[in-house]
Write a structure and sequence with these properties.
This protein is mainly alpha-helical. It contains six helices and two strands.
Length: 137
């Protein structure tokens, strides 16, 4: 079973929150943590990783905080996973049976395709989900 680490899921959540304010103001750590239910001390570590990976920038001062560096359409979930936890691997070892090596490689490719979704795609899905249902009689 594939399990994404809490660091990855929190990273995606933090970037999602920042993407909802992409054109607006900077968000402070406490705002991101509160909105996405992430422990502040853990979020500080995550934002440092995301800053080093080039996803966010920090701005000092009274109006400071964190902002996305890139448009949400240019931030892919797979890139976040690779930046935080490294490459997705099904198997770290080669086996004697070549067909199994081919099988594992194909599945890794499919896994990458599965997470080849942008933050903007998720924002679009959120808008659809948040639309009130209209009932006409």
């Amino acid at each position: 079973m594939l399990t994404l680490s809490s660091k990855v899921t929190y990273s995606i959540s933090a970037l999602f929150e920042l993407s909802m304010h992409y054109k607006g103001k900077c968000l402070q750590i406490k705002e991101i943590a509160s909105a996405q239910n992430i422990p502040i001390s853990y979020l500080e570590q995550i934002l440092l990783i995301l800053r080093k990976a080039g996803f966010v920038k920090s701005i000092r001062g009274a109006q400071g905080g964190y902002k996305l560096v890139h448009d949400p359409s240019n931030i892919k979930i797979i890139d976040i996973i690779k930046a935080v936890d490294g490459d997705l691997k099904i198997s770290n070892t080669k086996v004697n049976e070549e067909i199994l090596n081919i099988f594992y490689k194909e599945k890794e490719t499919q896994l990458y395709q599965l997470f080849d979704v942008s933050i903007a795609d998720l924002l679009l899905q959120k808008k659809t989900l948040d639309k009130p249902n209209m009932y006409y009689i």
